Structure formats: C-alpha cells, structure tokens
Amino acid sequence: MDGTVRFRETTAGDAASIAAIYALYVRDTIISFETEPPAAAEMSRRIASVGERYPWLLAEQGGQVLGYAYAGEHRSRAAYRWDVDVAVYLAAAAHRRGIGRRLYQVLFDMLRLQGYINAYAGISLPNAASVGLHESLGFAPVGIYRKVGYKHGAWHDVGWWALNLQAPPAVPAEPLPYPQLDRAVLHTLLETA
C-alpha cells in the first residue's frame, strides 16, 4: 500500500467509505447524537447537499479513506451566513497521526477564501481528544449545553468552541459558494496539505 496520505475533495463515490467511518461514531459512541448510522445513499445525499455551498474533504492512503472534514450552515437566519459549523471524523487507523489537523487546516483555508468569518464546533462531552484537537487549532470554548442529548442510557452535554477564521470586515461580501472557488487554488491547497 502506498504510504502517502493524500487529501482531496469528497465525491458521491466516497459515500460508502464515509458511512462506514461515521457508523462507528453513531453506534459505539456519544460523539454523534444520531442513533442510527446513515446508509451510503443518505451519505451521498449529504455530500451533494453540503457541496453546494461548503467544502467536504477527505484523506486517503492507498485508496483507503482515513477520515473526512466538512463545513455546514451554522444557523439558518441570514445574519449568520458568514459563520459555519465544522466537523472531522477519522477511521481508527488514522487517530494520532495529524490527519484530522491537516484536514481541518485545509478546510479552514478554503473557508477563508469563501469569505467565512467564524467556525464553530459542537463536541459531545466528555471527549478530551476532540477538545484537545480543537483547542490546539485555536478554538476557544464558548459554552456548554447541559444534558442536551440522551444516548446510550444517559444524558450528555455538548460543548461549543469557536474559531475566528479572519477579521470581520466592516461590510462583508457575500460568502462565495464552494463550487465557485478557483479550482487551481483548491488543488494547490490539497496538494500541500
């Protein structure tokens, strides 16, 4: 197997691999508050839906998907449109290798190019590894929703962390939809991850 970890945009063809990674988080942990793992067809629909406005990236090695990161809408009201929620999920073999960090760094560079100002991450608690990753990337805690989700026989908290992606301009331009970003710039960001 080729030892190089490669970063690229996610396609609908990656849905089964992404669904398999995510299923472990849904079934076996409190990290995701979903209770039934989505099938590949549903994951394909999500990839297409997110890709209309936001990046969805993955890391692979030797054709095997190691993890993925994506951005999505923070809130639906218009004044929030310069903010995004972000998430990263890794296969067990990809933990503690810097892959989540690299996925996020490329994702954040793309979001800056689009004109987004703030990124938010919701983390089911306790989750020291995720808190550590986010804080090492500059996220700061902003609050905790106490006992907000019931899963695996218990109530769980969700902490929220925020990252300022760039200084907010006095009058911001509309965020650029992801498909409109310069493909050559995106290719360079992915190749240098």
Tell me what you see in this structure.
The structure is a single chain. The chain has helices at residues 15-28, 40-51, 99-114, 128-136, 183-191; strands spanning 5-9, 56-61, 64-73, 83-90, 118-125, 140-151, 154-164. It is of the alpha+beta class and 193 residues long. A seven-stranded mixed beta sheet has the order 1-2-3-4-5-7-6, sandwiched between helices. The chain is globular.
What characteristics describe this protein?
single chain, about 190 residues, alpha+beta, Aminopeptidase, seven-stranded mixed β-sheet
H/E order of the elements? EHHEEEHEHEEH
Residue-averaged pLDDT: 96
Indicate the proportion of strand residues.
25-35%
Count of the domains: 1
Low-confidence stretches: none
- What gyration radius follows from the Cα positions, in whole Å? 16 Å
Number of strands: 7
CATH topology: Aminopeptidase
Please bin the fraction of helical residues.
25-40%
Number of helices: 5
Strand order in the largest sheet: 1-2-3-4-5-7-6
Short structural summary:
With 193 residues, this protein is of the alpha+beta class.
Secondary structure elements and their pairing?
Blueprint: E1 5-9, H1 15-28, H2 40-51, E2 56-61, E3 64-73, E4 83-90, H3 99-114, E5 118-125, H4 128-136, E6 140-151, E7 154-164, H5 183-191
Parallel strand pairs: 4-5
Antiparallel strand pairs: 1-2, 2-3, 3-4, 5-7, 6-7
